[in-house]
Hints:
It holds the Pfam family SnoaL_2. This protein is α/β, with parallel strands linked by helices. The chain has helices at about 15-30, 30-35, 55-65, and strands at about 5, 40-45, 50-55, 70-80, 85-95, 100-105, 115-125.
Amino acid sequence: MIDVQAPADCGNAPKKRVLRDFTVALAERDEEAVLAAVSDDVEWDLVGRRIVHGKADFTDAVAAALGREVATLHLDAILTHGNEGAVSSRILFRGSGQLRCCDVYKFSGFGKTAKIKRITSYWIEV
Length: 126
């Protein structure tokens, strides 16, 4: 289990919870939870690394994305509006190393049950 540090949520922005849970699931490599949150035609652009199209390729990308065991996940900010959102976070790995992340999301619709359709991830090793 990783240590998750996140700002308090007022509870009236359901997509904030979706993005929080998705980011935690990704850090924990919880494939089932991650796949449940994305649409079948999901696109993930890991800027400078690779672009993933579709759920089948997404599964492989999730397994390889972080490469090391996460010790702590700091969710610095989660912003949503309409069918878009963004998460600013810091990942501290067991042993050593840190990743600064900004992930920009597009949902498949505006409703509470909309799936994540597109992710653009800007990840920097520090």
